[in-house]
Design brief:
The chain is about 60% helix and about 0% strand. The protein has about 50 residues and is mostly helical. The chain has a domain of about 30 residues.
C-alpha cells in the first residue's frame, strides 16, 4: 500500500467568491428582518 494516491479536489475561485457574496447577502437579509421586527413588531411589515 505504498502506491496509494490521494486525490485533492480544487475549488474554483469563482465558486468561493459566489458563496461568500451569497452568505453576506443572507446576513444582510437577516439583519433587515430583525430590524423590521424590532421597529414594527411584524415579521413582514404591512402583511396582516
Amino acid at each position: 500500500m505504498t502506491n496509494s494516491k490521494t486525490k485533492t479536489k480544487t475549488i474554483e475561485k469563482e465558486k468561493v467568491v459566489a458563496e461568500t457574496i451569497n452568505g453576506r447577502f443572507a446576513m444582510l437579509g437577516l439583519m433587515a428582518a430583525i430590524g423590521a421586527y424590532l421597529t414594527t413588531g411584524q415579521i413582514i411589515p404591512g402583511f396582516v
